[in-house]
């Protein structure tokens, strides 16, 4: 049997309806590029694996875990089943549009120095998902983006809006630091070279960390807005109206704090050696404070 050009890995966790819509969108574009789909399910309790088995027999593999092992480990479980030259990590709360897979694959074929890329990621409102293209966090970007939120006040400032590249048009193709895990299109050879996702991250920042490792090896990463997908965003974390009531408070707290914990892991792994000890300790203090603030908000507001 001929090997597929592309392997699509979808990590699933209690998003059965969204996962169905995602797979239906993939079914419509199966003729664009030869691909296989691997669904890695993180112990869903909503019937997601059974739905895939019943309704999408063309899905190559459904991997089931007994517990939620997180984003990085969940995606890495697909490694032994991937046969494609290219690999797309795709969220279940996404809808693939016509030509997106074909043109992304062609882009990597034509740009041998590019290790990974993403497309324009659009929210259901029609707005750009700003996390589609991101800069690596530095103490300055952390201050202006996370704490002072100056990029919301000056969204096109080159000084204050570095994190989301607000000063570059979302319709412009350009090199970026980091991609979002919702649509992370890369090469199997690159993943093997850098060791796939770092499983020290449970949820959040693992896509930024993977981007870091790819660029560290000399590969370029690009934002390619000529094609797009739709991203519901935050569904599995209880952040949308559609799913908010279905996620227990304990789970919401776990997810919100995982974001902050991931910041700390990234700082210690990738940034620690780049800055003086005093500045690193100040950054860690800020992260601890942010953890307290977010935990308080979740407990009080739900």
From TrEMBL:
Glycosyltransferase 2-like domain residues: 7-118
Top-level division of the source organism's lineage: Bacteria
Protein's name in the database: Glycosyltransferase 2-like domain-containing protein
Source organism (scientific name): Candidatus Woesebacteria bacterium RIFCSPLOWO2_01_FULL_39_25
Native organism taxonomy: Bacteria, Candidatus Woeseibacteriota
């Amino acid at each position: 049997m001929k090997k597929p050009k592309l392997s699509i890995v979808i990590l699933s966790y209690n998003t059965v309806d969204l996962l169905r819509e995602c797979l239906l969108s993939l079914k419509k574009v199966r003729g664009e590029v030869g691909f296989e789909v691997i669904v890695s399910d993180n112990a869903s309790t909503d019937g997601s694996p059974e739905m895939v088995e019943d309704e999408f027999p063309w899905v190559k593999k459904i991997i089931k875990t007994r517990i939620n092992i997180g984003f990085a480990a969940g995606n890495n479980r697909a490694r032994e089943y991937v046969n494609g030259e290219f690999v797309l990590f795709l969220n279940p709360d996404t809808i693939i549009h016509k030509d997106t897979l074909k043109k992304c694959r062609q882009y990597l074929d034509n740009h041998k120095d590019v290790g990974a890329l993403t497309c324009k990621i659009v929210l259901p409102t029609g707005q750009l998902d700003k996390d589609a293209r991101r800069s690596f966090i530095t103490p300055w970007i952390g201050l202006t983006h996370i704490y002072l939120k100056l990029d919301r006040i000056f969204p096109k400032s080159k000084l204050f809006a570095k994190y989301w590249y607000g000063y570059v048009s979302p319709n412009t193709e350009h090199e970026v630091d980091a991609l979002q895990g919702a649509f992370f299109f890369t090469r199997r050879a690159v993943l093997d070279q850098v060791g796939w996702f770092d499983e020290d991250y449970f949820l959040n920042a693992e896509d930024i960390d993977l981007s870091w490792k790819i660029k560290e090896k000399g590969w370029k990463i690009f934002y390619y807005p000529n094609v797009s997908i739709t991203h519901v965003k935050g569904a599995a974390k209880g952040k949308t109206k559609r799913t908010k009531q279905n996620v227990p408070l304990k789970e919401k707290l776990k997810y919100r704090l995982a974001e902050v914990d991931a910041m700390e892991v990234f700082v210690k792994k990738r940034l620690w050696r780049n800055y003086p000890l005093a500045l690193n300790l100040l950054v860690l203090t800020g992260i601890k404070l942010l953890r307290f603030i977010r935990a308080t908000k979740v407990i009080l507001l739900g």
